[in-house]
Structure formats: structure tokens, C-alpha cells
Amino acid sequence: MIYLDNAATTMRKPQAVIDAVVGAMGSLGNAGRGAGTGAMGAARVIHECRERVAGLLGCPSADHVAFAPNSTEALNCVINGIVGAGDRVVTTVLEHNSVLRPLNRLAAERGVSVAHAGCDALGRLDMDELSRLVVPGTRAVVVTAASNVTGNVVDVAAVARIAHAAGALCVVDASQAAGLVPIDMAEQGLDVVCFTGHKALMGPQGTGGAAVMPGVDVAPWNVGGTGVHSFDEQQPLGWPTRLEAGTLNGHGLAGLAAGLRFIAENGGVAAMGEHELSMARRLYEGVADVPGVTVYGDWPALELGEASARTGVVALNVSGLDSAEVSDALMDGWDIATRPGAHCAPLMHRALGTERQGIVRLSTSWFTTPEEIDVAIGAIREIAVG
Amino acid sequence: MIYLDNAATTMRKPQAVIDAVVGAMGSLGNAGRGAGTGAMGAARVIHECRERVAGLLGCPSADHVAFAPNSTEALNCVINGIVGAGDRVVTTVLEHNSVLRPLNRLAAERGVSVAHAGCDALGRLDMDELSRLVVPGTRAVVVTAASNVTGNVVDVAAVARIAHAAGALCVVDASQAAGLVPIDMAEQGLDVVCFTGHKALMGPQGTGGAAVMPGVDVAPWNVGGTGVHSFDEQQPLGWPTRLEAGTLNGHGLAGLAAGLRFIAENGGVAAMGEHELSMARRLYEGVADVPGVTVYGDWPALELGEASARTGVVALNVSGLDSAEVSDALMDGWDIATRPGAHCAPLMHRALGTERQGIVRLSTSWFTTPEEIDVAIGAIREIAVG
């Protein structure tokens, strides 16, 4: 199979990640919940993972990296832990439902006002509109670092400046960006970065979390056992315990730590981003001029020559064909896995006019080869031209 | 190492569990989020796991098994999804902080009244007090199926009868019981059972969930992407989607399914429970009469001859020694891993008078051998008698 659905999950993991999970499953106890090498081994693995995530995201304190099973839960935790009844929040039409739905619920149930900055025809965030919407008193700006539909990268440092000028926090959904696009919370002024482990970080499913700048207050979401301060009636508020009730996924985090090591040993985020983008660019250039093929997103950004201008996503449609029909044809005819449909980003589709058709998303990874891309190009040409 | 901290996490997993995770990490896409064998493989593995959990717990519908990363999150989800502002909830002093703290928070923030039924000197739940506390109009009774401190098993069917007589729901924390003690939601009248995968079910960390009887309404906790109904502003309410926002831990659930297969192939819950209890009984009988050793819990229950009278926990103290001191001595002198301290169950310790000393918990698994138990007996004797 040619797997081009890496923006959903990187199906192929480095062998070192698998080996780390296997090792952990044979040796880890429960971190912070026992005496002995098993429990201590778990604590050590988890701490290494925390330090590596902090390093990756430029978070000044490893203890301010709190793990969660995925970025969705991290976003629920952070959004509900920051935004109070009646607050104002600004977000964008680029967002995934993991941002939109927590905010929609707060709007429906707690009187939170939510404004959405729009985008242009290429799916580029309208910074001027964002700037107008972020009025003084806004509690938070919640923004994706890269669209999961178009692969456009957002200038989160600019968003943070706008947020901070109005006294708002800047919360970033880095699900599509972490591991591909340079992120430095301290330098870019990001207050919270939520990430997932199973995409470009090449870790196992069931891993992810939130990195929070020291000084930013996030109320607990899940509460319960922590292995410390058992007699406190409420969740202890030390970091990272406050956001980590219950047994952590030590087995998965061992794999995530290995994924982060793999990235570091192979040139880091810059090399990862460059490879995925070069594969996506090859695909784009092979299909952009095929009659009937529409490619979405900010491809002119590549002309700026920045390696981190885009992620490894190519979003397209073929004539008026339903996106699912095209994905099925790619699978049935060429054994190419892609993702069709709405990608859990309804406002993005509304902005692009693809609500009914959906979009066929092809997304690359570190393991994607030029040969695979060329097969995909041939397949799309054949579907389009017949 | 002699690992006797299985009530925290079963460190040793069946090889089939490890193999299943390895297989999944090389082949699974993102369930419900793509076209192709990867995504379909993930959906298939997750569905198998749902069916096996439903079978294990007597839940009439596999779609009413919703996965979560651990039982803590499942309990947060269920408790917050069932209990509304001003409701009355009855729970017990046997509970873990994963039950107590979500309820304490609701009490502090939403005016929920929470009453705790007590226990006797053996840690046995006071059913008469529970019955008095569950007045008509009570929203839910939340109860553990087995104490994580003493290993006492609770008669959840009797609790359910009391709950239902007052019109209340019966929510069970089966973290310590699932896989060891027979649970049948339909037969026992349990409305919700929360479970974890990484203890007696022998799955990986990062797995667990809630089984909910059809007809019982649980509002969503985490909301976000679901792969279906992307254009709905709020979380879709179909099962199990309503309780499963974000990418599931497919890799871990493949392992959990293998753990459940392993249990089925080795005699089922009855055989598992019997082995763990027989090992715990051997330990109990070897140390109960050692001068200075106090063993907690309802050991007379064994006289009733029921295989499921207790879990594989032996909770003890040695003279006035701090429990951590004893655990450390067991590790340093005999390489035996145990858990000291408060076990995230503050009210249980208050009831047993072990708030300061804590308790040394030794807990067995399917892989525990008589030889290991005999080493532990010798070690405890030596620590006690010197």
C-alpha cells in the first residue's frame, strides 16, 4: 500500500518507536505509584518524554508539559481550563472540530462569545480580521498552527502578538505542525501548545498533550488519582499533576520519546518538514495543471522559499467527483490510502466551497518516497483525464 | 524482580498482547478517518475490542462501550455526564480519588450534595447506611466493585437494587475488579461500568473506558473530531461517538483486545480471579499470624467459599513502621516491588486508621507464582521479627 494519509496518523513508525513500546511493555510499572524499578522506570521514561517535548516546542519547563491521550483532549482541557463563563474567545475558520466544538459548547452552555476570523480563497488566515476581532478583554485566541485541510501554515507568532496586545492568551493547536514546523513557545510568545503524538512526531496513538508557559493558569479537567497528595479533597495544583489525573500511558510515551529521538537523530524538525514538503511539492507539481484537478491551499507560499511555508498536505478535487469516489478509486486502482470528506473542519470547507464535495487529502511523511508520489501523480491524472 | 504491584498496573503482559501492539503499530491507520486498509484495520481492531469488553461486562450493546485512556477519565466523563447542578449523589468511603475528586469538584462548584456510606473495621461497606443515604431523588450511586486498598469485593448487585429502588443510577468503578470478579451489567442491574485496560485485563497503559446500559444518558465530556457528522456544531450524540472525541488509541486497544482474548483462552474471569486470590491467600496465610503484622480487609469472606470474595490484594503493615519503609526494605532486600502509602483512597485510610502510616499493598497477577509468594512471606517475616 502507498500510504498518503499521514496527516490522520503516521501509519509507518520508526522501528525504534516500536522497540521502545515493546521494551516498556515488558518493564514498566505505574509511574509515581509504587516502589521499585518498574515504577521508577516508568517515571524515568515519562520524564524523558516531557523533556523532549519541552525541547521540541521551546517550553521553558518540562514540568509544564502535561500529557493527554490526544490533542483533542488536550484542547478540551486547556480551553475549558482557561475560558470562563461570559468570556470572549477569538478563533478562526481554519480550525478543526477539536477546537470548534469545545468553544461551541462553551458558547451554548456558558455564555462565551466566540468570533471566527475568516480566510481568503487560498485558505490563508485573514490577519486583519483577526486583529479587529481581538478586542481588549478577549480571554484567548485559539488558532491552529497549520490547517489539516489545506496544509497552510499559520504565522502563530503574529497571532500571539495580536493576542497579547489585547491582553489575551494565545493557545495553539499544533496537531498538524509539531515535528514539521518550527515552534518555539518562548520566542513566538505562545501561551499553550497542544500536540498529538501519533502524527508527525511518529509516536504511538494514545499520546499527546499540552505544553503550557509557566505563569499561565489552566484549571484541571480530569481530576482523580495522582499518586501524590492523596488526602487533598480537590486535584493538587502542582505541575504537571494538575492536568494529569489517572495512570499515564507509559507504554505509549516510551514510544513517543523514541519518536522524538528519531526526529532529533535525523536532522530535526527542519529536515522532517523539508522532506514532507518536498514530497508534497512533487505531488502538487505533478497534478496542478491536470485538467479538472483543483488543488487547494496556499501554494504561492512556496515561492517565498521558506522551508516551513507548508506541511506535507496536498488537498484536491477532481472535476465534480465526490471526494470519496476519488479516494476509493485511488485505493481500488492503485492501493493508495488517502482521506476524503470533511476532515472535521466544517468552516474551512464552507470557506473553500467544498461542503458537499469534500476534499481528497494526500499527506506525506518522512517515509514517503518520490516513487510513491509518482504513482499517485499517475493515478490522479488517469482519474482526471481518463 | 518479584513484581507484586499488579493492582497498580500489571507489569508483565502476555506475549500475545505485546505482539498485537507491535502488529497494530505496523499496520493501523486512523479509525473512521480515511479510505483504505489501514483505516479499516483500525476500525476492525477497535470494534473487536468493543465486543470483547461488552462480553466481559455483560453490556448488551458493543456500541455502548466507549473507550478512554484510563478509568479515571471514564469516571470523570460519566460522573460529569450524568450528575447535574444541585443533584444528590451517594458514594462510599471505599472509593479512589478518581471517584471522590470528580464528586468533590461538583460539590464545590455546582452545588451537588455528596454523601459517603461508611465501612466496618474490616473495610466492608455498610449497606444499611448506604440504603439510608440513598433517598428518593438521588441521581446516582457511585461505588467501587472492589477496594484498591483492601481487596474487598463489593456486592454491586445489592447496591444497584438500593439505587434503583430510589430511582438512582448505579455507576460502578471496576478498575480493580474487571477481569477478576464476575460482572454482568444486565444481570446485576449496573447502569455504567468504568474499567481500565492495564490492570487485570492485561492490556497496555492508555486503555480503558465506560460501558453504558442502553437508555442511560451520558452527556459528552471531551468534544471534537469524530470522523462523522463533521458539520454538526456540537458533538454528535450517537454511540459510542458521543463519548469518543479525537483519535482513539488503536495501538493500545489492539493490545487490550489481545488481553481479553488471553483471558478467554485461559479459563476466563473465574480462572483469573481464582489464581490471583489463591496467591493472595497463600501470602495472607503466611503472614497473618506473624507478630507485629496487621493485615487489613475482609479475609473472613474467604470462609464463605466464594471464588470472587476478594481480589488479589494483601494490604498490611508491620508494627508501627511507615509503609514506605517496609516497601523500600522489600525492594532493597528481596527485589520485591510493592506499593506503600495512601493509594489515592483517603477515606479508606481514615476508616482504617492508617492515614499517617499508609499501607503496604502486595497484589498478585495471573503470572504470580507460589515461589514468589513464599519469598515475600519470608521477607515480611524477617522485617517483622528481625
From TrEMBL, chains A, B:
<protein>
    <submittedName>
        <fullName>Cysteine desulfurase</fullName>
    </submittedName>
</protein>
<dbReference type="InterPro" id="IPR000192">
    <property type="entry name" value="Aminotrans_V_dom"/>
</dbReference>
<dbReference type="InterPro" id="IPR015422">
    <property type="entry name" value="PyrdxlP-dep_Trfase_small"/>
</dbReference>
<dbReference type="InterPro" id="IPR015421">
    <property type="entry name" value="PyrdxlP-dep_Trfase_major"/>
</dbReference>
<dbReference type="InterPro" id="IPR010969">
    <property type="entry name" value="Cys_dSase-rel_unknwn_funct"/>
</dbReference>
<dbReference type="InterPro" id="IPR015424">
    <property type="entry name" value="PyrdxlP-dep_Trfase"/>
</dbReference>
<dbReference type="Pfam" id="PF00266">
    <property type="entry name" value="Aminotran_5"/>
</dbReference>
<feature type="domain" description="Aminotransferase class V">
    <location>
        <begin position="2"/>
        <end position="374"/>
    </location>
</feature>
